[in-house]
Amino acid sequence: MGSRTAQILFPVNVPGAFDYAVPDPMRLSRGEFVFAPIGKQMKLGVVMSLGEAEPGRALKEIAEIKATRALPLAMLDFIDWVARYNVASPGQVLRMVLRSWKALDPSPVATLYEPTGDRPLNLTPARRAALSEGGPFPARASEIAARAGISPGVVKGLVKTGLMRSELRPVDAPYPVPNPDRAGRDLTEAQSVAARELVTQVQKDRFSVSLLDGVTGSGKTEVYFEAVAEALRQGRQVLILVPEIALTQAGLARFAQRFGAEPVAWHSSITDTERRRGWREVASGRAQLVVGARSALFLPFAKLGLIVVDEEHDTSFKQEEGVIYNARDMSVLRGRLEDRPVILASATPSLESLHNAQSGRYAHIVLPERPGAITLPDIDLIDMKVHKPETGAFLSAPMVQAVADSISRGEQSLLYMNRRGYAPLILCRACGERLKSPDTDSWLVEHRATGRAVCHLTGFSMRMPRECPKCGAEDGLTSIGPGVERIADEIQTHFPQTRVEILSSDTTATPDEIKARLGRMEQGEIDILVGTQMVVKGHNFPKLTFVGVVDGDLLMGGADPRAGERTYQTLVQVAGRAGRADKAGEALIQTHHPEHEALQALVAGDRDLFVGVEMAMREMLGLPPYGRIAAVILWGPDLKKVKDLAKDFVTKAPRADGVEILGPSEAPIARLRGLYRQRLFIRADPDVNLSKYMTTWRAKQKRIPTKYKIQIDIDPQSFM
Ligand SMILES: Nc1ncnc2c1ncn2[C@@H]1O[C@H](COP(=O)(O)OP(=O)(O)OP(=O)(O)O)[C@@H](O)[C@H]1O
Ligand SMILES: [Zn+2]
């Protein structure tokens, strides 16, 4: 037998795994973590595969196996596939998997305290506080002390008197076990049918995709809970992906209520401690229920049973930096590799998913109405060419009247305006200068609440200047167009006595403030909520009956072939917040283009009409789902050199039938943080393996100057 080798992948951005010799008598398996020399360093990597050494080839040796749980084999395949599909390096994908090195080691231990249960009558106030307010137990003395407002010495004193005991224990506690057999809501007949179909898919114990296609407020969550329960009963783990914004306390509380246990919540802003705890518990198979944003898809589940992607149409499932991937599509891939079912849920499914459902690749499960007597809101258009607001105002008379009506009924209104801040443009009346972000093609946005001018692209901000930075004219700067703050001001002047609040993902609003605002809205303590995209997602406000869309045209146009689809989805979702409880809802949309097909379909409540027209257009143009698309973005500090690089890159495109290349051309954001940007658009017939094509193409561009970058985006969602 020849000597053995192992292919080790390190979590770094290099093209692939490296070969190492396996020293005798080391025994290795795929998925194990090992230390191996790379340059002068010893680095931790993963064994992707094993093989026989070619004679005469000198290889460095693996130094040591790390004593920890190996990555599951399906996870290794997943890393490979994600890298290949998205034309990324597998090392970069591995880095997304290994979000916490500490998770590879057992939980740290600490001396934890808990009451013994004895409770004598004559306690000092400090001791009583420690026992009654120091929990949840077991906890560190310092934690108990902080919660009870006492000194840690008191806790230790309680141990001496036998009222508390202490023990060396793991700090990262296991998660509570969800109970699938707690009763959910009583389902309607239509809901039960849908739930049974999903449960059957779970029982089949193999890969399938189901599209749960139900109108807003139809109870999709309640329905997929039944499938979740079934997978939990099988003793397997469940992953539920939701848009980051839906991971609020209220959103998570629904899972806790249904299954009697807090799920693992996984998103970008969890603490390092929660990250290592979550990762370790998921890897061990002990944590059964995970609710997370897109990155949760890269957790190393030991026995995955089901993946649910809620609001599957949502653009936040697409990651636009580092490894560019779409978590919805990668969920389907992961389901296939694990051979387990996937559920995609939405009131406004993407055309890709609808196409897959219509062609029979996905099971199509439809909920056509809301439960009980609750109806979908009526939707009407306001033609802004007819109902012109006064100069400097943005709300038409019918819109203001509808808000007035809702106030007089004691109900709530929501005004949707997808622009943060006060005004999207700051202009100098003296010289015409527009305030721009430094080194970036983006206007600064006035935020009146904080008195700052902010770049929404880079986060740059400065104090709102008094004089024009170009000509020096004083008080010449004027704000053009509306943002949420301005709309809130305008509606407040119409109704000075009402409680108006703004909900937007602002740099100034902390997650706690946002949660508090959502809570006030739910409790009916706000009369009019003015909000951005943030208000669209999955919220339930029982007293909300009127929804007004300030600018129904904002989402249309531009280079994005899905602009019509997005407009339609957003408007259906926004309108769908109205009338979800016992009162009927109404929505009004201000527009300059009432004849637009997306708006007409919306008013008619005829999704099939919209989908039919849109699908026919996509088919004619060979766009998804009738073709594949990709984008290339070339970045660099010198305009001419970026252009040259782009031209050179285009000449290297492999010849292939059914592939069209458009560009290069200047990107809509032509400069970002000092780097110039050029774009290419690639369209291919459905039978072309576009990932493979792009990989071959990219490999032909051997050399690119340092500080220059070629970024490949498979199935782009952003066209900026
Ligand atoms: N059978 C039922 N009986 C009573 N209430 C129900 C029933 N089904 C759903 N509901 C309630 O209706 C509301 C909407 O349900 P849910 O959030 O599951 O809908 P959804 O389809 O996910 O909505 P959306 O897509 O608009 O976010 C919730 O408050 C839910 O508790
Ligand atoms: Zn000026």
Automatic annotation (TrEMBL):
Q: Does the keyword ATP-binding apply?
A: yes
Keyword check for DNA-binding, yes or no.
Answer: yes
Enzyme class name: isomerase
Tell me where in this chain the Helicase ATP-binding domain is found.
Answer: 201-367
Binding of Zn(2+) 1, residues? C428, C431, C468, C471
* This protein's UniProt keywords: ATP-binding, DNA replication, DNA-binding, Helicase, Hydrolase, Isomerase, Metal-binding, Nucleotide-binding, Primosome, Zinc
Residues noted as binding Zn(2+) 2 in the record, renumbered to the chain = C455
Q: Which InterPro entries does this UniProt record tie to the protein?
A: DEAD/DEAH_box_helicase_dom (IPR011545), Helicase_ATP-bd (IPR014001), Helicase_C-like (IPR001650), P-loop_NTPase (IPR027417), PriA (IPR005259), PriA_3primeBD (IPR041222), PriA_3primeBD_sf (IPR042115), PriA_C (IPR041236)
So what EC number does this one have?
5.6.2.4
Cofactor(s) this protein requires: Zn(2+)
Q: Organism's domain of life?
A: Bacteria
Reactions it catalyzes:
ATP + H2O = ADP + phosphate + H(+); Couples ATP hydrolysis with the unwinding of duplex DNA by translocating in the 3'-5' direction
Q: How is the cofactor bound?
A: Binds 2 zinc ions per subunit.
Q: What does this protein do?
A: Initiates the restart of stalled replication forks, which reloads the replicative helicase on sites other than the origin of replication. Recognizes and binds to abandoned replication forks and remodels them to uncover a helicase loading site. Promotes assembly of the primosome at these replication forks.
Q: Which family does it belong to?
A: Belongs to the helicase family. PriA subfamily.
Listed under subunit, the entry gives: Component of the replication restart primosome.
Q: What is this protein called?
A: Replication restart protein PriA
Which species does the entry assign this protein to?
Algimonas porphyrae
Taxonomy, top ranks, is: Bacteria, Pseudomonadati, Pseudomonadota, Alphaproteobacteria, Maricaulales
Gene that specifies this protein:
priA
